[in-house]
């Protein structure tokens, strides 16, 4: 049997007191004016959308060709903004600066990059390969080269990349493609002078430290997933092949990338290199490697390709169609496609309209699921929105 509420006697007493009060003489206190209105409740401040919500809303209002254009990050030679701004106005996500874009000093670069910011709600991604050492675009980088860091405590790497990122941010650069997560102890490897460690554990510690150093200054990128060090050859002119099994990869080359992801790196760059035991295709075009990144390593940021023109430069017939390369990259799971272009992009059959049309047509044909295109466009726009919000803080 359910017990009666214990507050019942109190309620009876309160009712009785109210009846007695009603029978007593009226109080001298004035009754409230019947015309007095209660004070209005303050209107709650609406909660602003998160960067992800904002990006999803914008993508929902875009056409497929607009979404496709928003996945592109291109280069145009020169230290004036005109050619780059034309591509930005065509809807691309951003530009990558190479040596031929860099003025003489920080002030000159800051003036150039300011001209490339077109949307107050979504930052133009302005990327650069500033590793230090042999891969340096700016001359005023105060940080030591990778080979000077790999024998030092990881804290030295953190401090170096903090200083490097501060110099980039002061120049208007907001994305650094500068953290090499490859591992090799082979001095003959083309990547040897660029690595932060010659064995996986040490490399992992320094890669994570580099990400921590850049945090809050620029968006960090680690490269070249799943790891160049195990794949002899130069992906600028070939598709290098690594002889490792997936388990061997997990026990070695994977470690720096896992450390970077645990440190909340914003972008991972896939390489044009293959691990045939996992997938015969280059990682940049491999759905399996993208699955491993997302599902096994838990990466939830932006997946960017290495320069897509490298595939055409390798001379292999299957990679000579730029539209087909773009379709394969997006279908595999890439979010941002990188292109280092010459003064005349038509030399390689490249244009914003052409790449966007190829990707959109692949969506219409079912080769790229519409959800895949939406996901990629949303991830890139979310990053661009986050960069704007960080600048307002």
Structural overview:
Helices cover 41% and strands 9% of the residues. The protein has 15 helices and eight strands. The protein has an eight-stranded parallel beta sheet. Helix 7 packs parallel to helix 8 and helix 13 crosses helix 14 (352-365).
What distinguishing features does this structure have?
393 residues, alpha/beta, 8-stranded parallel beta sheet, 15 helices, 8 strands, 41% helix, globular, disordered N terminus
Instruction: State mean pLDDT (0 to 100 scale).
Output: 90
- Count of extended strands: 8
Strand content: 5-15%
| Rg on CA atoms, Å | 28 Å
Summarize the main sheet.
Answer: 8 strands, parallel
Helices and strands, in order, run as HHHEHEHEHHEHEHHEHEHHEHH
Query: Looking across the biggest beta sheet, what order are the strands in?
Result: 7-6-5-4-3-2-1-8
Point out poorly predicted stretches: 1-32
Q: State the share of residues found in helices, binned by percent.
A: 40-55%
Structural class: alpha/beta
Describe the global form. globular
Number of helices: 15
How far apart lie the N and C ends? Answer: 60 Å
């Amino acid at each position: 049997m359910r017990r009666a509420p214990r507050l019942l006697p109190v309620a009876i007493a309160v009712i009785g007191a109210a009846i007695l009060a009603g029978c007593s003489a009226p109080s001298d206190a004035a009754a409230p004016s019947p015309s007095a209105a209660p004070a209005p409740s303050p209107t709650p401040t609406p909660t602003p959308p998160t960067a992800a919500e904002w990006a999803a809303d914008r993508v929902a209002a875009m056409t497929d060709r607009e979404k496709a254009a928003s996945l592109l990050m291109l280069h145009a030679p020169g230290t004036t903004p005109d050619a780059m701004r034309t591509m930005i106005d065509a809807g691309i996500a951003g530009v990558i600066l190479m040596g031929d874009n860099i003025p003489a000093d920080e002030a000159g670069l800051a003036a150039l990059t300011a001209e490339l910011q077109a949307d107050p709600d979504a930052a133009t991604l302005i990327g650069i390969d500033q590793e230090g050492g042999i891969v340096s675009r700016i001359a005023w980088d105060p940080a030591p080269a990778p080979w000077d860091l790999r024998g030092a405590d990881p804290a030295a790497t953190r401090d170096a990349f903090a200083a490097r990122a501060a110099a980039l941010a002061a120049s208007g650069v907001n994305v650094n493609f500068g953290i090499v997560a490859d591992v090799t102890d082979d001095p003959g490897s083309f990547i040897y002078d660029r690595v932060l460690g010659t064995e996986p554990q040490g490399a992992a510690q320094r890669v994570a430290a580099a990400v921590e150093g850049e945090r809050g200054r620029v968006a960090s990128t680690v490269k070249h997933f799943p790891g160049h060090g195990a794949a002899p050859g130069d992906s600028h002119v070939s598709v290098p092949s690594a002889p490792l099994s997936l388990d061997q990869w997990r026990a070695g080359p994977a470690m720096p990338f896992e450390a970077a992801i645990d440190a909340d790196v914003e972008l991972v760059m896939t390489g044009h290199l293959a691990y045939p035991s996992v997938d015969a295709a280059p990682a940049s075009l491999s759905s399996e490697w993208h699955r491993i990144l997302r599902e096994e390593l838990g990466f939830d940021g932006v997946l960017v390709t290495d320069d897509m023109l490298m595939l055409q430069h390798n001379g292999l017939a299957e990679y000579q169609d730029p539209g087909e390369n773009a379709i394969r990259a997006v279908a595999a799971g890439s979010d941002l496609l990188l292109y280092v272009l010459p003064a005349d992009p038509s030399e390689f059959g490249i244009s914003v309209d052409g790449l966007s049309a190829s990707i959109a047509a692949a969506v219409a044909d079912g080769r790229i699921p519409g959800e895949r295109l939406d996901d990629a466009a949303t991830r890139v726009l979310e990053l661009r929105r986050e960069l704007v919000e960080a600048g307002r803080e």
